[in-house]
Design brief:
It holds the Pfam family RVT_1. This is Reverse transcriptase domain-containing protein. It comes from Ktedonospora formicarum. With about 800 residues, this protein is an alpha+beta fold. Helices cover about 55% and strands about 5% of the residues. It has 29 helices and 13 strands. The strands form five sheets. The chain has a four-stranded antiparallel β-sheet, with helices on both faces. A hairpin with a 5-residue loop joins strand 12 and strand 13. The two termini are about 25 Å apart. The relative contact order is 0.11.
């Protein structure tokens, strides 16, 4: 939030800007009349030259490039050609200057409106308030019946068949969670995340960034946190309780909590440690299972070979999730222990089997980090999941064209808000945590939250956007994976609680569906029937399965294995996006929110993934509709902004038509900085069109998934991120690009050396129009507009935080240049 002094400085400049507008309009009108009544072309040139030089705003020249014509005007008569050229040039400078002055005024008015919005407390969104109250009531209501812990113990006992006690084994990785002193590097890592997290308040982000700048304070905090860790069993939530607030996460409202930075750092450091321990344990457990399987297959002949075969198949499914290594009547399918021995090999480092392990590891990492579905995570979880699923579909259709492939999508309803505390604590106990440590976890789960005039404790669910919560949730879901694969020969591709199950067997997909229902029933969870779906590619879908198409955000999988944008989900999302944009009165804030939705649209429709031509065409259609009809048919964002600016800042009889290029021009250069959805969509489409047609290999040896071969190249060709096509560099435009970078660094106090692909497209497409309309890129002066003060706060929030509440839509779009 702006300080009082910053607000006064900004207001002073912006008010002066508004007052100068009338005088400037009069000056340009008078100059036009003078030129009109001047008889000769040379005299008109002299009038234009002198008049334009004298037009200033707050003593700042608006035509600094009109200079050095004195020899032409005061010396010997020059040629008619030269006089005509400069006459035409300055005649064009006149409307360009008038437009520049109008745009500077409008830009200042937009900023003034934005600053004014920052200084006022906003009315919370009613839908968000209602959702917050509902989730708070759910969290604080009496706990549901205790889950059936017999299933948990059974699953852990099954994992003990590796010959190692799971509790003792896990504690080799997690035993130091509460013992090792907290380091400065751990604190800095957490502060770095908090300073950029869209899921925390602007105040929290700013305080975290301020701490990061002071290494001494980071060290002091690490030492203080270590003291708290030494008596961790005394820790509890603040006595006054934490604040709960609703947050719109681009597709729905969620309940979040906020509290002091010190407590946040303490919990996030410990959460990071638990996350690392869990990841290391799972990786080691996987290697141990593969090793045990290998030893089992090398064992001498056994009198009861069928028993050994079943044991080997059980280990193989848990270790590899390979749906093609089962008892299906195919030539390469192992039917006996001997077949399985010849089939199974430790996969080549570059093989389909190893690629699957790598993808599962990435999804596991995305599921336990804080932004697995967000637009700011290091690993694009949803993109990776969709590419992985599509690669498996393409592989199945190429390798087994006559076989069906069943794809089942599961979603757990309100997963994090309905997690049973008893369930989580039982899992932690089975992982070997002591009673003292379990008491700490219980207090973490029982969040003390302000509710009305008093306080209450969470009785179920976990606080969102905490590493502890994500890891605890992943511990539950990992057991769900285990329960499914021990009951059905299927492959699971999962991102958090969005679960995709694949198999070529109708009986196995039914078993998987039943196993998932059983696990949820026994653990107090429930599947979300509205978000579950299934298809059978190349066959018929069993009646017991969900009959809707599988959907991920705004993408759906069709019966024939093709992907496309789910227009029903898109229409619902678009309506919510409109409401979010219109919730804010400031037009600049509306643009910020619109930009966030463009960014989300790219992820939600998987524009950066190669999901086939049908999908690509549907993304272009969705982007076109978003761009051209955001508010209604034939009324996109630009038309709505033009109308609003006309009504708010211009005279009713004004004939000024704001140029389209100005709306897309970056805010650091005096434009509105609106993101062009069609440039993004067409840029991805252009890159997609350059992908070569894939031809699957003709031969498929028995160990085709364990070797480095053409099948690997075919498989991995579907697993890659598509980037925006780069514009072709031209010498003339690159000079302007470099000048723009230099100008931006001057204004933003940055050291940027290049432009991103998107902003290069904007400069290449709209730069010539800006030059034609305004005569220069440098039409904005920071002496006239308090841009640096604005930008200093632009990165933190979308609204005032008088109560340290937040109803924004996440972190702002990255600044151009």
């Amino acid at each position: 939030m702006m300080t009082k002094n910053e607000y006064l400085i900004a207001q002073m400049k912006l008010q002066e800007l508004r007052q100068q507008r009338t005088r400037l309009s009069q000056s340009y009108a008078e100059l036009e009349q003078q030129v009109e009544h001047t008889p000769t072309k040379l005299q008109q040139l002299h009038t234009l030259f002198t008049g334009l030089q004298h037009i200033k705003m707050a003593e700042i020249s608006l035509h600094p490039d009109v200079a050095n014509l004195e020899p032409l005007l005061n010396g010997p008569q020059h040629s008619e050609e030269t006089i005509s050229f400069w006459h035409k040039h300055l005649t064009k400078e006149l409307p360009q200057g008038r437009l520049r002055s109008e745009l500077i005024y409008i830009f200042g008015a937009l900023l003034e409106e934005w600053v004014q919005e920052k200084s006022q407390e906003r009315t919370p969104d009613p839908a968000g308030v209602q959702t917050c109250a509902q989730f708070l009531e759910l969290a604080c209501e009496s706990a549901r019946p205790a889950p059936n812990l017999a299933l948990l113990k059974e699953l852990f006992a099954e994992r003990n068949d590796t010959g190692r006690d799971i509790a003792r084994w896990f504690q080799q990785f997690g035993g130091t969670l509460f013992q090792e002193r907290i380091t400065t590097s751990e604190v800095c890592s957490v502060l770095e995340h908090l300073s950029n997290s869209p899921m925390h308040t602007a105040t929290t982000r700013k305080h975290a960034k301020d701490f990061l700048r002071d290494k001494v304070m980071c060290k002091e905090m690490a030492e203080a946190l270590s003291l708290l860790l030494a008596r961790f069993d005394e820790w509890d939530w603040p006595k006054e309780g934490v604040s709960a607030f609703p947050l719109w996460t681009m597709n729905k409202w969620r309940l979040f909590i906020t509290y002091d930075l010190f407590t946040m750092c303490f919990l996030e450091v410990l959460g990071s440690r638990l996350h690392n321990a869990f990841q290391q344990f799972l990786a080691t457990e996987q290697l141990e299972r593969e090793k045990q399987l290998s030893e089992l297959l090398k064992a001498p002949p056994h009198e009861n070979e069928d028993v050994l075969f079943q044991q080997a198949m059980h280990h193989y499914r848990l270790a590899n999730s390979d749906i093609w290594a089962n008892s299906r009547p195919l030539p390469e399918t192992p039917q006996t222990l001997k077949n399985l021995q010849s089939f199974f090999q430790i996969g080549h480092y570059y093989s389909i089997a190893k690629q699957r392990q790598h993808l599962r590891k990435n999804l596991q990492e995305a599921s336990t980090t804080l932004d697995s579905y967000g637009d700011h995570q290091e690993i694009d979880g949803i993109g990776t999941a969709l590419q992985y699923i599509n690669a498996e579909i393409q592989l199945a259709q190429a390798a087994f064209p006559q076989a069906p492939l069943y794809v089942l999508k599961l979603d757990i309803k309100d997963f994090y808000p309905t997690l049973s505390h008893d369930l989580l604590l039982s899992i932690l106990e089975l992982y070997g945590f002591s009673p003292r440590q379990l008491a700490f976890f219980r207090k973490f789960l029982q969040v003390r939250v302000r509710k009305g005039e008093g306080q209450e404790r969470f009785q179920q669910g976990v606080p969102l956007h905490h590493r502890f919560s994500n890891v605890l949730g992943e511990m539950v879901l990992h057991l769900l994976d285990q329960h499914i694969v021990r009951n059905a020969r299927v492959q699971i591709i999962r991102l958090v609680d969005d679960i995709c199950i694949l198999t070529p067997e109708g009986e196995e997909i039914t078993k998987a569906w039943q196993a998932a229902q059983e696990f949820c029933r026994e653990t107090g969870l429930a599947l979300n029937s509205e978000k579950c779906g299934a298809v059978c590619i190349g066959g018929n879908l069993p009646a017991q399965l969900p009959q809707s198409s599988p959907r991920w955000l705004q993408v759906k999988l069709n019966q024939d294995g093709t992907w496309e944008v789910d227009m029903e989900a898109f229409a619902s999302y678009l309506e919510k996006a409109r409401q979010q944009v219109l919730h804010y009165s400031s037009l600049l804030t509306q643009i910020e929110v619109y930009n966030l939705h463009v960014k989300h649209l790219i992820r939600a429709t998987a524009m950066e993934s190669d999901l086939g031509e049908a999908h690509r065409l549907s993304t272009i259609g969705a982007a076109a509709h978003f761009h051209k009809a955001f508010f209604q048919e034939h009324q996109g964002m630009i038309e709505a902004l033009r109308q609003a600016i006309q009504e708010r800042f211009l005279h009713q009889d004004s004939m000024l038509r704001l140029p389209e290029d100005w709306f897309y021009w970056p805010i650091t250069a005096g434009g509105c900085g609106m993101t062009h959805a069609m440039i993004m969509a067409s840029g991805y489409a252009e890159s997609h069109s350059t992908i070569e047609q894939r031809t699957p290999p003709s031969k498929r040896p028995a160990n085709w998934q364990q070797e480095y071969n053409d099948w690997l190249h075919f498989y991995t060709s579907f697993i890659k991120q598509i980037h925006l096509k780069e514009p072709v560099a031209t010498k003339g435009m690159e000079i302007l690009v470099n000048d723009f970078i230099h100008r931006s660094n001057e204004m933003g106090n940055s050291e940027q050396k290049t432009l991103g692909t998107y902003w290069r497209w904007i400069l290449y497409i709209y730069g010539p129009q800006i030059l034609d309309h305004l005569g220069t890129f440098r039409f904005l002066s920071t002496e006239l507009v308090p841009l640096q003060i604005i930008l200093q706060h632009y990165q933190y929030d979308l609204k005032s935080e008088s109560n340290d509440s937040l109803d924004n839509l996440g972190d702002l779009e990255e600044h151009p240049f």
